[in-house]
Amino acid sequence: MVSHAGSAGTGKFQLRMSPWAIASLTLALVFLLPILSVFIAASGDTGDLWPHLFQTVLPRYVANTLILMAGVAGISLLFGVTTAWLVTRYAFPGRRVLEWMLLLPAAVPTYLIAYTYTDFLEYAGPVQVLLRDIFGWQSAREYWFPEIRSMGGATLVLGAVLYPYVYMMARAAFMLTPASLYEVGMLAKRSMFLTVGLPLARPAIVAGLALVMMETISEFGVVEYFAIETITLGIFNVWLGMNSLPAAAKIASVCFLFIIALLAIEILARSRRRFINTSRKSAQLPPQQLNGGKALACLAACLTPIIIGFVVPVGVLLSFVLKGYSLEFNNAQLSAAWHSISLASVVAVLVVSSAAFMGLVAHYQGGTWLRRATTVASMGYAFPGTILAIGVITAAGTIDNGIGRIVEGMFGITYHGWLTSGVGLVAVACAIRFQAIGYGAVTTGLGRLPPNMMNASRILGRTFAGSVRETILPLMRLSLVTGGLLVFVDVMKELPMTLLLRPFNYETLATYVYQYAKDELLEQAAMPALFIVVVGIVPVVLMNATLRK
Amino acid sequence: MRGDSATGLSLSGISHAFGKNRVLDNVSVDVAPGELVCLLGPSGCGKTTLLRIAAGLEPLQTGRVAIDGVAIAEGGKAGELPPERRGIGLMFQDYALFPHRNVRDNIAFGIDKKKGGRRADWIDDALAQMGLTNHADAYPHTLSGGQQQRVALIRALAPGPNILLLDEPFSGLDVGRRAQIRADTLDFVKKTGVAALMVTHDPEEAMFMADRIFVMNDGRVVQSGSPVDLYFQPANAFVAELFGPVNRFVGTVHDGSVETPLGKFNAGTLAEGSAAEVMIRPEAFRLSTEDSEPKPMPGDPDDLVVVSQPLEVLTARPLGRSSYLLLSIGNGCSVETRIPGAFLPGAGSMVRAGINPRLAHVFAAAAR
Fold first, then answer.
1. Measured between CB atoms, does B109 come within 8 Å of chain A?
2. Are A220 and A385 in contact (CB under 8 A)?
3. For the segment A291-318, what is each residue's pLDDT rounded down to a tens digit?
4. Most exposed residue of A90, A393, B97, B187, measured as fewest CB within 10 angstroms of its CB?
5. Is B52 on the interface with A (CB under 8 A)?
6. All domains in chain B, ordered by first residue
7. How do residues B112-129 score in pLDDT, each as one tens digit?
8. How far is A366 from chain B (nearest CA, A)?
9. What are φ and ψ of residue A254, in 5° steps?
10. What is the pLDDT of residue A260?
11. Any B CB within 8 A of A452 CB
12. Whole-prediction pTM value?
């Protein structure tokens, strides 16, 4: 039979637009508007600032960004691929626990690992104190100690918390490769890793790596704290430091080139991932039992990234709390926690409902073009928070100006620009940035639906809306809740957009920790920081559950 | 072809394309109340698309869909009735039972009490009739394939539709269970008196179920008629081959018949001197030992086409109910035959053959 992918009309140009499709398209445009607005902002007048920036700092920004990306990619590959292979192929003591502990560093926001390592490795920190005690050194001049607040340090700490993306993708690919293929390699007496595991997992690994790269470009907390002048930090500094939004937007448009390249790589890699047949459950190769030295070596190899990416930063925060810092709850902390939780909840609901709406309409009612528009509308994740912030504020400003002119012209009332002066701006920016998570959840949910559910429901007398309500949404509930939870956690951890767009005196836990860390008073914010990490463990548990299935 | 005034389902002049790929070309099919019509054809012939168009799951491009003489969709016109308002039942190939509802709730899903749909006692009766009474509270994934199939059938009929569409309703079942479920399904559908349109690629299934069969190929209806008509009077080689394997010979029409190594066959209306092909079904053969004459079986015409020379047995294999014999006809050529019962002469022995001419079909060779 001709394959009907469960949806109507695949005709090449169907202009039979249902009201649902129109509503969905409008929503998609709202999500795209801020991204397009960056270009509007970039066309603004910069005086002679831009040529100056272009000649002096821009090359440095670009070079630093590239160096950082390369370094983080290297570390993520090293940590992610080796550990994924070890826990999939070998059985050694502690393997089952390590399997999911390897995801734990994903719970630590990048800015927290930067703050804690700085504290850990500074002159007065525990490491240097211990070294001085042992060797009897009196001052910093008597010994050499690596500076964590450097390009190398940034690479290490970023790699240590971002490698789980690669690990997760690689492990899933290794697990899904059928045993028979490994056995072919084994019978041919060839390296199973080099001839079977790695080539088949390559697209998955590349897709994971693309995500790591996007996170690296977007990175704000670490580069700001370590003063690594990347493009993202440049945008932030030019906007806030030189007070020039147009110039910042111009730098942002340079950044677009990187993002588009990465998006292309990711999409390509994801489409190629299909060459492992995931639809059928094939037998998995039982892991090979290791003992003695080899088992110890595996254990050490898997523990290293966990220690660097999770144990040390959490240990530093815990030790602050154990020493009695940051234990009394004050109003500022409580209000920051409330802001974080309420903002995260609102954004989670916003993302899941908009993603469900657009995803379902595109799947069931849309032609090819509506599906594309929906996919494009969920690409906010590829754009650094600083850039989205520019876009959102420009779009909101334009709309506010428009409303202001109309209101003043018609009623003679002065309009204060409600859109540009509220928490709503932060929520919208977060919803755009994390839309992909919701859209991913909807796509997964749709993929897991048994075939013909919508058709059966409609044949049995339900309208499209009725079918969605009574049949499709109940069947997708789990995927949607999971998606919402992931969004919630990401908003809790979010820093740069909140910093740039929040109203005066509006603190979330992340900005609260940021302020204290900036004043070198991290211990005063240890408790809120730990709280962010603990919340961050939720998606780790979820991710692990998905992998185990 | 009946007019629009007729009751039941009428699909007329339907053409459909996916992009540039034309899957239906001016197809017309009608189903009267109480009648079961089969769309039979190979994969990709467009039969499922036609079913989806009738259901409203695929927007109509060209043609007309009418129920009881009232158009519910017309190509090029707005106002196509959405699937939920057509009052058509559809049984999906994969059953499409709702996994989050139990058997009873699945069946009751489409019943609209306000519109006078069937009531709870109807569901109980249907479940009892299909041997599912003990499974009313079970969830679909706990049922066997055959049970799911029956739930899907009851669910499709529960709202009391006048039209029932069945998409390959038996393809998911074990061969062993099929015959019984087929019989149950036919019985159940016939009792409701709906106009039923069923899609299948299995000719035996179509012949068992259908009052009329529409054979489709490449988006067109190539022949329609009763199962007996189609089996004994296929309109062309495609239909003949669809209903089972054939031994194929080519020849020229001479004096109203075609000469083959097995004898002369009536060429019907084919022109003198034109190229023709003769298709002889393996089950057309009547065999006997070398020292006796092959005899007609009950149902055969009196005069078999008798093969003049004895044929050498190359292989003889038992198939249970019948025997398979491969016979040499000289020049390195052979014919396949299928004989009821166990007739298994040794390889190399000679047999005499007669052919039931009703199972030997002659077509113009250009038809291919």
1. yes
2. yes
3. 888 999 999 999 999 999 999 999 999 9
4. B187
5. yes
6. 9-241 (3.40.50.300), 245-367 (2.40.50.140)
7. 766 655 677 889 999 999
8. 13
9. -65, -40
10. 83
11. yes
12. 0.82
